[in-house]
Amino acid sequence: GKSPFMDMMLVPVYADDGADAGAVRISPRVVQNLGIRTAEVTLGKLERKVSVVGSVAFDERAVAVVQARTSGYIDRLFVRAPLDRVSRGQPLAEILAPDWVAAQQEYLSLKASPLASEALRAAARQRLTSLGMPDETVAQLDATGKPHARITLTAPISGVVGELAVREGMTVMPGAMLFRLNGLSTVWVNADVPETQAAWLKPGAAVTATVPAYPGESFKGKVAALLPEVNAATRTLKARIELANPQGHLTPGMFASVAADSGSPKEVLLVPSEAVIPTGKRSVVIVAGAGDDGKQQFSQVDVETGLDVDGMTEIRSGLVKGQKVVLSGQFLID
Questions:
Q1: Which of 4, 16, 23, 129 lies in the 20 to 30 Å Cα band around 299?
Q2: CB 160 within 8 A of CB 85
Q3: Nearest partner of 178 among 269, 273, 86, judged by Cα
Q4: pTM check: above 0.70
Q5: DSSP summary character for residue 115
Q6: Residue (of 102, 97, 75) closest to 149 by Cα position
Q7: 35, 329 Cβ separation under 8 angstroms
Q8: Where does 60-201 have alpha helices with state H?
Q9: How far is CA 138 from the centre of its chain?
Q10: Where are the alpha helices (DSSP H) in the chain?
Q11: Pairing mode, if any, of strands 277-278 and 283-290?
């Protein structure tokens, strides 16, 4: 007769219809009325791509410090503001070093004296180096025979002035930090990676980044490190991503989107994610097969699932390639 709960006729089920426990056979007409869809278990690869966001920061490994190697005075300053861009070899400051004058005159006198021994001349030359005089200045002294009381400090790398600690007229002492330069040939992106995807991201993995400031342009790089600290509020790890920045377009503070490839995936069994019924303790799929009497047979199978990416779920055990699983109407079958 008609079901008291649904507007449909009940179908009689006899004890000898099904031999398998936990299985049911349904006529093709009823299967069509229920709107049951099936899909085949396939063998394929899951592309485990990690997409994260972060902010651009200076590469702390590309830092150079310019110090005073002798006491003196800042006679002239060529770079006057923090974050000014500088090029390798560009003059930064000129230092007046009075201590150099006497040492150079002594060296020149010993060099010109026929009575001075070679060891004494070598000691006088060594004293110039000990006072912080560069080898280029000593060579210039030998060539010209004139003392040089000033030294010009140049930028050892190209980048920006991260810190400026001097002004014209200031007195400096040996070892004083005058400039801190940050290189921009490479930059870091500090990105938050979900804890569930941390295992997918390995140091050295290739990444591609984009920034809103330069639409259509991408920047290549790699994962430098996954920092060993989890944010308790967001359940994310901090990833340090190193990007090449040959044109200097990337500057600290920019917002960046990073896509990382987690490596070459292995072939696994795949089913559409809608076929999997999670019950809380286990995962179940309903397998469709043909019965001997022309009816379709459906049975439930416990499966072990793996990754779930882009609507496809990895099946680690419970199914084989070629089987058909039910995508819709599972609960009516149940």
A1: 4
A2: yes
A3: 86
A4: no
A5: T
A6: 97
A7: yes
A8: 98-112, 118-130, 135-144
A9: 46
A10: 28-34, 98-112, 118-130, 135-144, 330-333
A11: antiparallel
282-310: per-residue pLDDT in tens? 899 999 887 666 778 888 899 998 877 77
Residues comprising the chain, all counted: 334
Amino acid at 179: F
**Tokens representing residue 278 in the block:** 């999670």
The half-sphere exposure of 122 on its side-chain side, counting CA atoms within 13 A, is 3
CB 286 within 8 A of CB 327: no
What are 187's two structure tokens? 């930059």
Q: In this structure, what is the dihedral angle of CA atoms 265, 266, 269, 274, given to the nearest 10 degrees?
A: -10
**Is 157 in contact with 63 (CB distance < 8 Å)?**
no
Q: CB under 8 Å to 94, separation ≥6 — which residues?
A: 74, 75, 76, 77, 78, 150, 151, 152, 153
Q: Which two tokens stand for residue 227?
A: 């920092």
Radius of gyration of the chain (CA): 37
Let me know: does 258 contact 208? Beta carbons within 8 Å: yes
- Tell me which residue of 50, 48, 47, 46 sits closest to 192, measured CA to CA: 50
Contact, 185 vs 244, CB < 8 A? yes
Q: Could you tell me which of 41, 88, 83 has the C-alpha nearest to residue 272?
A: 41
In the numeric block, which tokens belong to residue 112? Answer: 């010109």
Res 18 pLDDT > 80: no
